[in-house]
Amino acid sequence: MFRNLTPVVKALLLINVAMFVIASYLIPQLDSIFALYFIQSSRFMPTQFVTYMFMHANGWHLFSNMFGLFVFGPLLEQYLGPRKILILWMVCGIGSGLLYSGYNAFRISQLDNTIATFYDNPSPEKFSNFVKDNRHLFKPGVFDFVDEYSRDPENKELIQRAKENFMGIRDIQINIPMVGASGALFGILIAFAMFFPNTELLLLFPPMPVKAKYLILFYSIYTIYNVIINNPTDNVAHFAHLGGLIIGAGLVYYWKKSRTDFY
After folding, report:
1. Which of 23, 78, 133, 228 could be stapled to 30 by a disulfide with Cβ–Cβ 3.0 to 4.6 Å?
2. pLDDT score of 263
């Protein structure tokens, strides 16, 4: 099985597994250095646009990404060559990180507008709505404060506490890190579907064959759906997955128009 691994795929698998072991058991501080933080975070460093894709949240996160690379990567590397599959992996990984950061900037700007509206005209209703929209980030005791503030809306001390809650949630939001090679992997997936659309793959659940183009189409639709519904309790960076799909598709489209330079 492992004899069929191609050089770049094998190297990427080894690097990702090694980084997971080192970060999990030897140098746990690497998580806070290599993960990708929002550009306004004090922990942000430009190098994180590269390093984040070699970090993973847990063993299942690592396995799912590496399994996808293991299944789809070797044939793609044989077809494209080592240089191009590495370019595909890195460009999709870095590009999805950049796009996700842009998406985050949009979300934070919306949050800033909400905060500014409250600061201009504080009210228990605005604070209550904010708590409902972000309840997964608050401690249960916040609802007691909502009741207290509702009974005394002109209390300056309560208004100040409400403002501190707003800023506390903002601080949490800009310091949520992103890790994982999913953006890069989704670039591999879309490339595989575009180069080998009718290749049949055997699913595990349910155990049935399906063509690559239909499998990747399902993943694409599922990703777009999750981006649209934007479930606040979902800790998966679906927009980064979408970024990998878009960038990978664009890169493959460009390569298909320039078939003479394959190597």
Report:
1. 23
2. 43
Q: H or E stretch including 242?
A: helix 238-257
Of 71, 96, 80, nearest to 212 by C-alpha is: 71
Contact status, residue 187 vs residue 89, Cβ threshold 8 Å: yes
What pLDDT is attached to residue 89?
Answer: 97
Q: CATH 1.20.1540.10 in the chain, residues?
A: 2-105+178-261
Q: How far, CA to CA in Å, does 55 sit from each of 17, 28, 41, 114, 185?
A: 9, 11, 19, 33, 13
Q: Which two tokens stand for residue 110?
A: 């919306």
- Tokens 């507008």 -> residue: 113
Task: Say yes or no: domain 2-105+178-261 is CATH 3.30.930.10.
Answer: no
How far is it, in rounded angstroms, from Cα 203 to Cα 200? Answer: 10
Q: Give the 3-state secondary structure of 24-40.
A: HHHCCCHHHHHCECCCC
The distance from CA 144 to its chain's CA centroid, rounded to whole angstroms, is 34
User: How far is Cα of residue 105 from the mean position of the Cα atoms in its chain?
Assistant: 14
Cis peptide before 206, with omega less than 30 degrees from 0? yes
What stretch of H or E contains 210? Answer: strand 209-211
Q: What are phi and psi of 72, to 5 degrees?
A: -95, -20
Segment 6-29, tens digit of pLDDT: 999 999 999 999 999 999 999 999
CB 223 within 8 A of CB 83: no
Strand partners, 51: none
Q: Is the dihedral of CA 238, 243, 249, 255 positive or negative?
A: negative
Enumerate the H helices of 35-181 as residue ranges: 48-51, 59-80, 82-120, 124-133, 142-151, 156-174
